[in-house]
Specification:
The complex is a heterodimer. By secondary structure, chain A is mainly alpha-helical. Chain A has helices spanning 9-40, 47-65, 69-90, 100-122, 148-170, 172-189, 194-220, 226-241, 246-266, 274-285, and strands spanning 3-4, 7-8, 138-140, 145-147. Chain A has a two-stranded antiparallel sheet with strand order 1-2. Chain A has a two-stranded antiparallel ribbon with strand order 3-4. Chain B has helices spanning 40-48, 70-75, 93-98, 110-116, 118-122, 133-145, 163-178, 190-196, 221-228; strands spanning 2-11, 14-24, 29-34, 53-60, 63-64, 78-81, 151-155, 182-187, 199-204, 207-213. Chain B is globular, with a radius of gyration of 17 Å. Chain B starts with a strand and ends with a helix. In chain B, the strands form two sheets. A six-stranded mixed beta sheet of chain B has the order 6-7-8-3-9-10, with helices on both faces. In chain B, strands 2-1-4-5 form a four-stranded antiparallel beta sheet, with helices on one face. Chain B is built from nine helices and ten strands. Classes of the chains: A mainly alpha, B alpha/beta.
Chain lengths: 294, 230
């Protein structure tokens, strides 16, 4: 048997794959958080709950309307995005002139309400969501067998992250968003409807979370805790990458997922804490985060 | 073109403007002169709707804008060049140039703007804040010429710049005026102001206290020295 540093190669591959998949979810979720924090200055604690809501919307589409995985991948983010727009218009937009703490409290409260309602309705164990037929079975990579669905999750997440980055860095709406993140009043004095930009940005960030939720549904089954399990690590990812940094979120998300996977192979006891140890080290060495501007 | 009357503005509890009144006619270059803290910049920001609270009347092309949001004020045909220039660090020169929305037909096209400001073309891909202070000021003026706004508010465009750049900005302002733009200019430097302006309003303690046509500026020097404390 081939081994690397005394561990079987296949075990290493297996954990690396798992790490990459977790990393894909970290990247998608922290990307949305970064975009929202950059423009709104709101730390969106409801992000995990909206991720979960994406999963449940996909499940409901299948259960009640017989709408399958592929349309749900588009529809669920749209539906949750509209929900986010309503949240921003009715609740969050009252907080912009107040301290950060209020945004945190409000969105944390929203998360508790959404998760509580889901638990009431579906119980703690949740509901199963099938893998789409096209992606059943393993994929033979030559050196290992990889479940096709897991490969798809990594590719889809990386694709969406790349597309989001391109939109922000290379398009007109992206340059407007970056400018408004720097100095929103001046951008508004240049004729841009900034309140609408803020609403749409929140909706888009939330839609990214819902997209991740649909991707996650066949892997973890749809349950009320799926967001809460992820979100703490995701906040650590955002802090390590640098609050508000787009590229930082993507790179750090995938990187830390892989690091977690490696830790599971070589020192499993630390696998749950390694992300937070990295966070402490980064905060000591570079308080603004790896990609943040000091 | 612009009629301001009874304009009051507040920052929190502090009452900054106390009934400011003046007007700018189409095609004119008009300055607001005054000492630091007289309320010149606050007047500009009030016209753009960028102060927390304001009252009175600001009519632009006959349209009342006192209750409008800043983006709608801009769309009424006003281009704003702020005191700190407002060049965005996360945007390239071209992105900075293209940021302000086109509010009316008839703005200058890109070839014309690059002919007026050749440096901007050379540095099109640079990060906006990597430009020199003078180039940043040119960029801040250039980007509002594109939008079709006919009334331009320029807040201290010469501040902190070398004399040769100040002369260049003077030429630019005369060029814009020749193209039919209307300019409201905030200046501390009345020697610069007299080379470009038609009329001067003097502000003190949040009020307009005097109006001096440019032709009479020489004769009013003593009075002006009193106002400005120079």
């Amino acid at each position: 048997m081939i081994t690397i540093f005394g561990k079987p190669l296949l075990l290493l591959y297996g954990q690396l794959t798992l790490g990459l998949i977790n990393g894909a979810f970290y990247a998608l979720l922290s990307l949305g958080l970064a975009v929202i924090f950059g423009l709104l200055n709101i730390i969106n604690f409801a992000h995990g709950a909206l991720f979960m809501l994406g999963g449940f919307v996909a499940w409901a589409l299948l259960e009640y309307l017989d709408i399958g995985y592929w349309p749900a991948l588009v529809l669920a983010p749209l539906i949750v995005g509209v929900f986010g727009v309503v949240m921003e218009k009715t609740l969050i937009n009252r907080l912009y002139k107040l301290d950060h703490l209020y945004g945190l409290l409000l969105t944390f409260g929203c998360a508790l309400i959404i998760e509580g309602l889901a638990r009431n309705e579906f119980g703690s164990s949740g509901v199963p969501y099938p893998i789409p037929d096209e992606l059943r079975g393993p994929l033979d990579l030559g050196f290992m067998m990889l479940p096709a669905y897991r490969a798809w999750v990594v590719v889809a997440a990386a694709g969406v992250c790349l597309a989001t980055w391109l939109v922000i860095e290379k398009t007109r709406i992206g340059s407007t968003l970056r400018a408004a993140t720097e100095n929103a009043p001046l951008v508004q004095a240049f004729g841009v409807n900034v309140p609408r930009l803020i609403t749409l940005t929140y909706g888009a960030g939330v839609a990214l979370a819902a997209f991740a939720g649909v991707l996650a549904a066949p892997i973890y089954s749809v349950n009320p805790n799926m967001g809460a399990n992820f979100i703490i690590t995701v906040f650590a990812v955002v802090v390590i990458g640098g609050m508000g940094s787009i590229l930082g979120s993507i790179v750090t998300g995938f990187g830390l997922g892989i690091l977690e996977g490696l830790t599971k192979v070589y020192y499993p006891q630390a696998s749950a804490t390694v992300v937070f140890m990295v966070m402490v080290i980064v905060l000591l060495a570079r308080p603004a985060g790896l990609f943040g501007k000091a | 073109m612009l009629e301001v009357s009874g304009l009051n503005a507040w920052y929190g509890e502090s009452h900054i403007l106390h009934g400011v009144a003046f007007d700018v006619r189409a095609g004119e270059v008009v300055t607001l002169l005054g000492r630091n803290g007289a309320g010149k910049t606050t007047t500009m920001k009030s016209i753009m709707g960028l102060v927390p609270r304001r009252a009175g009347s600001i009519r632009c092309n006959g349209r009342e804008t006192i209750a409008l949001r800043p983006d709608l004020i801009a769309r009424a045909g006003i281009g704003f060049c702020p005191e700190e220039r407002g060049i965005f660090a996360s945007l390239s020169v071209t992105e900075n140039l293209m940021l302000p929305r086109v509010v009316a037909p008839g703005g200058l096209d890109l070839p014309t703007i690059y002919a007026l400001f050749p440096n901007l073309k050379e540095r099109a891909g640079s990060q906006g804040t990597k430009l020199s202070g003078g180039e940043q000021q040119m960029l801040a003026i250039a980007r509002i010429l594109r939008t079709g706004a006919r009334l331009l508010l320029l807040d201290e465009p010469t501040e902190g710049l070398a004399p040769v750049i100040v002369q260049q900005i003077g030429r630019t302002i005369r060029e814009i005026k020749a193209r039919g733009f209307t300019v409201l200019l905030v200046e501390q430097n009345f020697r610069f102001a007299q080379t470009v302006a038609d009329r001067h309003y003097v502000m003190e303690h949040g009020r307009v206290v005097d109006m001096i046509p440019n032709a009479q500026l020489g004769a009013s020097m003593e009075k002006l020295h009193g106002y400005l404390g120079v």
